[in-house]
Amino acid sequence: MPSASCDTLLDDIEDIVSQEDSKPQDRHCARKHVVPKVRRRNTQKYLQEENRPPSDSPIPGIQKIWIRTWGCSHNNSDGEYMAGQLAAYGYTITENASDADLWLLNSCTVKNPAEDHFRNSIKKAHEEKKKIVLAGCVPQAQPRQDYLQGLSIIGVQQIDRVVEVVEETIKGHSVRLLGQKKDHGKRLAGARLDLPKIRKNPLIEIISVNTGCLNACTYCKTKHARGNLASYPIDELVDRAKQSFQEGVCEIWLTSEDTGAYGRDIGTDLPTLLWRLVEVIPAGAMLRLGMTNPPYILEHLEEMAKILNHPRVYAFLHIPVQSASDPVLMAMKREYCVADFKSVVDFLREKVPGITIATDIICGFPGETDQDFQETVKLVEEYKFPSLFINQFYPRPGTPAAKMEQVPAQVKKQRTKDLSRIFHSYNPYDHKIGERQQVLVTEESFDSKFYVAHNRFYEQVLVPKNPAFMGKMVQVDIYESGKHFMKGQPVSDAEVYAPSISRPFAKGQVSGLTEEFRKSPGSHLSSTSHTCAAAQRASVSPRTALRPDCALKTSVGLALFALLFALFVKIFN
User: How confident is the model at residue 293 (pLDDT cuts 50, 70, 90)?
Assistant: First the structure.
């Protein structure tokens, strides 16, 4: 291979430039004759694409999250809080599961079918290679189940830390926060009530007044997750209600595992709370009470009747009886007898004319005889409850009832069918045809053909889909009835008015954004857009304090930089 040769040696590489070559200053002067061509582009679109990293980036806060909730209104409220915090941080909450990068599955442990759906969703998430975070009562009650292994879990009292759990999960870590919130050793009701929230229905606010209960029902798995009673202070609940009305809410639901037990752990009671709440409810807005067990309402019947007669409180109460057999109730450890339940219902029906009493019944509890079941049948036939939740018994793992001698599956199914047939044998609203009622319109029907409203007794009334009616009090004439509903025709000359004191939030809008949260690290809803916030997050840590490993790396880096700088100064001096 020929070798390169030179006739003369070069003292410096700059000697390669000959006298004839153009000098740097000549090239610089020639630039004035060059006219650059400007390429037009959509600046806004360009900035968005430039600033937002791809959704599969490991940078937290830019991904799409799909949230699925099973179970009670308490669980739904938790799901709304988690969605609000994630959206406030910059994540996109999507209703399309396939588009999501992470699935947040908020579970219910009351019955086997609900947990089966939860388990199947986890399996599907694995198949679609989604990141997974689990929440709700199932992982809280039994976090060591095989199908939960290796997955991130957010406990029912830790929902205010959902952003941290999601962040770490996106980075590929598995995080479990299952602890209880305590103040000076006393268990608290849960996360703060003023956290950001995305209401599923912007017109309805669900407020959890307490968590847990005072009972030890032998069939209940929820107790393992929610624990003993812990109530929120009255002032915090009233403040949350006020805030909700200022955000356009026109209906509040009070919820918990047992609303009737509220306050027994903090030296107050449910009537005291309710009288404080009705003071702040705007005219036309309504309050709906949650489920209460018979023992804890018996001593407050007089006051409860007065409250349920209040024009801003629905004359509605959910009181589960579960069985009309005293031996079965004793085996369930329900702490009341059938006579107690009947006295509550009879008193309220007398003092609150037209009140709706909803109840629950379990068919096929261990040891339930045919005679026991017939007692329950007689109760339904006598009281003709307009709202009745019939549940076939499912033994939940870890509960005392699961170890009892079980009623044969076929017998349980047959009893469930028999009781359902009796329930559907009567129509509770036929006598109301022709009545003129005032109803509050709050949602759309499942078939999207009507708007759904509720009258004074929280009975469902379907009205025409006129956008002017949504969130309004409307006067209607009842012209048709079904098993679970009535249909009303709006009165043409009647006034339609909005009970909300301000314009309702748009669907998906984050509520409850206090100044404290807006200014907190990681919150990006102040003046910048979500896009810019996500881009900033790539260079700025969302935490105010570095973790120990980060601090060590930073210190080592600074030391090396100082050493190199000193060496550089020494060489050139």
Answer: very high
Residue 565's pLDDT is 67
**Biggest distance spanned by C-alpha atoms of the chain:** 120
Say which range, 223-227, 302-306, 352-356, 559-563, has the weakest mean pLDDT.
559-563
Measuring CA to CA, which residue among 279, 252, 242 is closest to residue 501? 242
In whole angstroms, what is the distance from residue 138 CA to residue 106 CA? 9
Is 80 exceeded by the pLDDT of residue 363? yes
Cα separation, 23 vs 62, whole angstroms: 51
Q: Which residues, in sequence order, are CB contacts of 370 under 8 Å at separation 6+?
A: none
| Number of C-beta neighbours around residue 343 at 10 A | 15
pLDDT of residue 555: 56
Distances in Å between the Cα of 168 and the Cα atoms of 151, 162, 164, 328 are 11, 10, 6, 47
CA–centroid distance for 273 within its chain: 23
Q: Which of 125, 75, 134 is nearest to 104 (CA)?
A: 134
Position 528 scores a pLDDT of 32
Cite the DSSP H helix spans in 247-337: 270-278, 301-308, 326-332
Round to whole Å and give the CA distance between 368 and 207. 36
Helices (H), 227-325: 234-246, 270-278, 301-308
What pLDDT was estimated at residue 267?
96
Pairing of strands 356-363, 387-392: parallel
**Residue 144 per-residue DSSP state:** T
For 47-113, give the DSSP string. HHHHHSPPTTSSSTTSSEEEEEE-S-HHHHHHHHHHHHHHHHHTPEEES-GGG-SEEEEEE--SSHH
Distance, CA of 506 to CA of 346 (rounded, Å): 42
- Residue 131 three-state SS: strand
DSSP states of 329-350 as a string? HHHHT-S--HHHHHHHHHHHHH
Q: Which two tokens stand for residue 166?
A: 């999601």
pLDDT at 294 over 50: yes
- Tokens standing for residue 553: 């790396």
pLDDT, average across residues 487-514: 86
Does position 14 have pLDDT exceeding 50, yes or no?
no
The continuous run of DSSP H or E covering 420 comes out as helix 409-423
What is the pLDDT, as a whole number, of residue 512?
A: 76
Residue 460 CA to residue 316 CA, distance in Å, equals 12
**Do 318 and 294 contact (CB within 8 A), yes or no?**
no
Lowest-confidence pick of 146-150, 273-277, 350-354, 494-498: 494-498
Question: What CA–CA distance (Å, rounded) separates 119 from 107?
Answer: 9
CB atoms within 10 A of CB 562: 10
Q: How far is CA 146 from CA 59, 84, 149, 437, in A?
A: 30, 30, 5, 53
What pLDDT is attached to residue 453?
A: 98
